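<derive_structure_tokens>
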Amino acid sequence: MGLDGDAGVGAVDRHFHLHRAQVARLDRDADAPRQRQVGVGGLAVVRFDFQGEGLFGPRALQEQAAAGQRRDLVVHDLAHVSATLLAAACEAFVAGAKAGLDPITMTRILGIETGRNFASSRVLPEQVATRTFAYGKSLGAALNDLDFVADEARRLGVTTWVLDGTRSLYRLAAGLGGGGEDMSRLATYYEAWAGAEVRIPAPGDQKQGK
């Protein structure tokens, strides 16, 4: 007998929902632990083995672990970029101070076109030039992030010239006693080496940018 009209539609719907229920049951079975009895000292002990390929299957767990590693790498890689940009901004601001340019002028100069970044627009003017040094992350923590990215890059066979230079700088600063200091204090090492200070000029100072 053919499937006609409402009766036919109802039969198809029932068949469809039955199929969905079977698929859902198979998925649950794949995720569920397998039970088997194991004899231990004459006692029957129920042991659960996760053998499925669902949410808790070996393949899924491996994929979740790999995804977690990729997320960690991305987070630490962003920290590497941030640390590198901070170092570059420190060099630029200290060079400007050595040449007689105040931080306000340097912020304007670096804000033109491609010179602008978070370190040059916020960290140096707000944390270094005001001598606040409260960025919120230590030099040691930044170095740990850089080391993590370097290890992963080495494992992947990636050459990291810029990262290696940044690591050397942060390792030097940490070795000089700044490991626990706020990472914005990286600028103070450049200041000591250059003999110039990045500081907002006092009111009426002739060096104040126009």
Q: What stands out?
A: The first helix runs from residue 5 to 31. Residues 108 and 188 are 21 Å apart (CA to CA). Helices lie at 5-31, 58-98, 103-110, 118-128, 139-156, 161-178, 186-194.
